[in-house]
Amino acid sequence: MFHRTMKSALLSATIVAGMAGAASAATYMRGNDGNPETLDQHKTSTVAEANILRDLYEGLVVYTPSAEVAPGVAEEWEVSDDGLTYTFKLREDAMWSNGDPVTAQDFVYSLQRIMKPETGAKYANILYPIENAEAVNKGEAEPESMGVTAVDDKTLEIKLGQPTPFFIELLTHQTGLPVHPASVEEHGADFVQPGKMVSNGAFVLDANILNDKIVLKKNENFHGADDVALDMVNYLPFEDRATCVRAWEAGEVHSCSDLPAEDIARLKDEHGDAVRVAPYLGTYYYALNHEDEFLADPEVRQALSMAIDRVFLAEEIFQGTMVPAESFVPPGIGNYSGGSPEIEYFGMSMLDREDKAAEILEAKGVSPDSPVTIELMYNTSENHKNAATAIADMWSNLGVNVEFNVRDASAHYAHLRDRGDFDVARAGWIGDYSDPQNFLFMVESDNDGFNYARYDNAEYDQLMDEAAAETDLEKRSEILKKAEALFMRDLPFIPLLYYSSRSLVSPNLSGWEDNIQNVHASRYLSLSE
Amino acid sequence: MLSYALRRLLSAIPTLFIIVTAAFFMMRIAPGGPFDQERTLEATVMANLNATFGLDKPLWQQYAIYLGNLFQGDMGPSFIYRDKRVHEILAEGLPISMQLGATALVLALVLGCLLGSMAALRQNTRTDFGVIAVATFGITVPNFVVAPVLSLVFAVMLSWLPAQGWGNWNQMLLPVIALALPQVAVVTRLIRGSMIEALRSDHVRTARAYGLPARMVVVKHALRAAILPAISYLGPAAAALLTGSIVVEQVFNLPGIGRYFVQGALNRDYTLVMGTVVIVAIFVVVFNLIVDLLYAVLDPRVRYD
User: Fold this and answer.
1) Which fold has domain A279-501?
2) A438-461 CB burial, b ≥16 within 10 A, e <16
3) What is the pTM of this model?
4) Model ipTM?
């Protein structure tokens, strides 16, 4: 009863309130995931930072509203036949907010800065494909030895260590954004503070109040300023997603960057198209320890994967905000023509899959009458807990009993990183760039940081090396497909779900296109009364 | 009294030192570090970060450096919020938390005294039962229920007040109410109890016998005695309001320091956690001192020489 009155009241309140809370028509009140840890593009690591930095700066290339790669500061570029040399021609009218021209030297300075060990850049490794970059980051070579040169003020040349067909994709990441060298030299780490920051994007930094708001103002010196509709963008950090939803319903923000899963059904019911749930470039998975006696058997791993009802997880546990995963590389990714290989058992009914899994395990002497016990490790979260409980239940029918081991995120990942003992561990991966390599590289045998499963398959490594050397994208995607087929056969990780992005977008905000990267630069957005 | 206060403050220094030391080493026992996240960092990157923040040095050396900096008023760089130092972060948030906490504390005291005295004066009547019911409600219903409901009703449904944010007076109303409610309840119960006792005491009976007006008897004689337990409660209440604002800050999206208690620990932001520990420790020491001094003012039996 209370609920019903509340619902209608909510609806009318939203309509009446309209955008009363917003300061003016062209001030976009933008809900963000949380407070950025830094506004230094070289120390950045979070999505919340990426959103803001994308508005403040423009890199060599940018994302369009639909997340296609498009020219940014670079108006065109050429790649040498061996795929090793990229020559970028910079736009003549690219300017910093203080009126300085954006030059090739600025990019050289920036790329050297991110690799200097003392910068302490969390994402430095994303740019390791650049010649000598890794050596510089290790402190073994001088920054000047990197393969980055300014041929003249408006021509930038980047040399790679080996062909990297997704190199242009890499440059869309916020680590590829330039800093204004003179400001960094003058202010040091403080160049990110309001009043000191000089940026070259559609907006400039006006105020930054920790955990309260970050205010951006339109940059009149931006070369595309005429096409920027918004005068101001206020980024509001929301640690608690439900708070953003209430603020949106009260008309105080125009968009929320994430929604609580348990509220999705109601929101869809009441606000229809304002609720945006779109495929996202990420996979939620369980890593299996290949050094564990029981899990070392590939058939056992197959049986465990087979018996998991992913539709139930997606629909019931995650309320339709995740998509059942039938591969490790999420669908819709770039440079992967034809997509992931198909796996036979995903075509079977859930009942048949359970029977088959039970059959496999019974042949190994495991059944509900003679069960084995494995440990499932996950990091604290209501959703992870619910998913783990459901999966434990599905496995118990096979005679696999599960004990839980729960830690907070930091302890959980430290345990995995330090190669601590575990049987099954939850993890998730959000791609940094749209290329299957960004997923499949995780289980290369020499990838100490990510190969939690300790998967060691020479054939797989060989395929990944071949793919790295192949410049023909069609042939390359065939090779990567073979690698993923091996992945799905050997299952270092059991893919469970693909992530979705979920946003709440006011009908007054136009230009917001759902896309797989979930990037929505404010320069393309506009507000109507 | 001044020398007493000074003595107390001086004796707090070793206490603070022990707290800082214990917190520093306990924090490091927790598994995981500030750079262990969902995304494992490349070994080189991790080594660079550890070197940047001095985490590659032996623990005793890190402790010595931290103490040295602390004496100069520098709480070190935050491991997570990399554009700021810890004392800058706390300096931004503390005034907001204090404003919020102090307002809630005053509200709790005033409302608590009023309701508590009302209940005591009309003991075992409907008013009394009503006040007790409200107080029990305030104590039992947690913040994380009250705060979202307040915001839902007054911001979303009625659109009277903003749902979140900081800066305007009207953005303070709902958070203060949510924060004060449990404290109002506690103070009400304390006052009610001690007021009933005070009303039966000899000096109040004597005052009545003298034929003093009822209002004067209650306010000047009964309440002055009855308020003492509520004053002793102020120390813990102030600390609780600072730390207890975690939920309220999150629900109303306020830039106070409450969030750092939990977030800092979960993120293993060592320096930020240390900073909050130091702040709370100072708060508890200072508030206990204030309470003791207030006692001297209110209770003629207490004297510090």
Assistant:
1) Dipeptide-binding Protein; domain 3 (3.10.105)
2) bbbbbbbeebebbbbbbbbbeebb
3) 0.86
4) 0.84
